[in-house]
């Protein structure tokens, strides 16, 4: 998505916990003529989030697009085996991290002429699945966060939508894709019968950020291979 936004002419600020991949990403963007800034840190740390938004404000004075894409899913177990601390860990990143980013960036977004917030959710924010309570709860909360902010921020000219991907070829899904049993079980629920590529998510994000979706707010764009059509 960062490469897609940069390729469309945006100045991109990228953030993640690991500095090295961020620097590689910035290098790739600059190699193709784009402009990018790396701010390593964790969205589960409100102090980092506030400092990062302050730096964006100092440099740009506004924020046109906020993409909340940080997410973890480290636990695959029955709900009665899930510890409270484990649930809290997932919520801290997936839900509270997005909330903190939105709250910290509210004024910068309002200063932009037509700002857009894109919260990356999941099919599991809409459809229950065994052993994924922590992840599903965090993404279900993202959906209601999106709808509520869409109502509250519409008068400010800030649109808020969510992307709900299915299973994508990323590091998070590498383990299950290596498992024949797990991957076959997942793909049996996907009408298109395959995992999505990261490139297939970019167009959805660009659409929600662009004037083409200027009358779209409070909605979910599903990129799930037909999961919800079952």
Report the portion of residues in β strands: 5-15%
Please tell me the CATH architecture by its name.
Answer: 3-Layer(aba) Sandwich
Number of separate domains:
1
- Annotated CATH homologous superfamily: NAD(P)-binding Rossmann-like Domain
Order of helices and strands: HEHEHEHEHEHHHE
CATH class: Alpha Beta
Q: Biggest sheet, strands in spatial order? A: 3-4-5-6
Q: pLDDT below 50 for ≥5 consecutive residues: which ranges?
A: none
Tell me how many strands there are. 6
Helix percent band: 40-55%
Taking the sheet with the most strands, its summary is:
4 strands, parallel
Report the principal-axis shape. Answer: globular
Q: What is the CATH topology classification name? A: Rossmann fold
> Average pLDDT, to the nearest integer?
95
**Number of helical segments?**
8
Round the Cα radius of gyration to an integer and report it: 17 Å
- The N- to C-terminal Cα distance equals 28 Å
Structural class: alpha/beta
């Amino acid at each position: 998505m960062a490469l897609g936004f940069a390729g469309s002419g945006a100045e991109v600020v990228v953030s993640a916990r690991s500095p090295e991949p961020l620097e590689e990403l910035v290098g790739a963007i600059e190699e193709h003529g784009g402009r990018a800034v790396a701010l390593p840190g964790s969205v589960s740390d409100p102090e980092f989030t506030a400092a990062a938004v302050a730096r964006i404000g100092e440099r740009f004075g506004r924020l046109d697009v906020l993409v909340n894409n940080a997410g973890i899913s480290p636990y695959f177990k029955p709900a009665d085996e899930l510890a409270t601390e484990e649930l809290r860990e997932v919520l801290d990143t997936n839900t509270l991290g997005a909330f903190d980013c939105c709250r910290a960036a509210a004024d910068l977004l309002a200063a932009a002429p037509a700002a857009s917030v894109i919260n990356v959710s999941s099919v599991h924010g809409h459809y229950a699945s065994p052993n994924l309570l922590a992840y599903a709860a965090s993404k279900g909360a993202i959906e209601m966060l999106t709808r509520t902010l869409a109502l509250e921020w519409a008068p400010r000219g800030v649109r808020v939508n969510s992307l709900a991907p299915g299973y994508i070829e990323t590091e998070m899904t590498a383990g299950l894709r290596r498992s024949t049993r797990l991957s076959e079980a997942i793909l049996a629920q996907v009408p298109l019968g395959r995992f999505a590529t990261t490139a297939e998510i970019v167009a959805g994000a660009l659409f929600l950020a662009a004037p083409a979706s200027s009358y779209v707010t409070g909605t979910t764009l599903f990129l799930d291979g037909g999961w919800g059509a079952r």
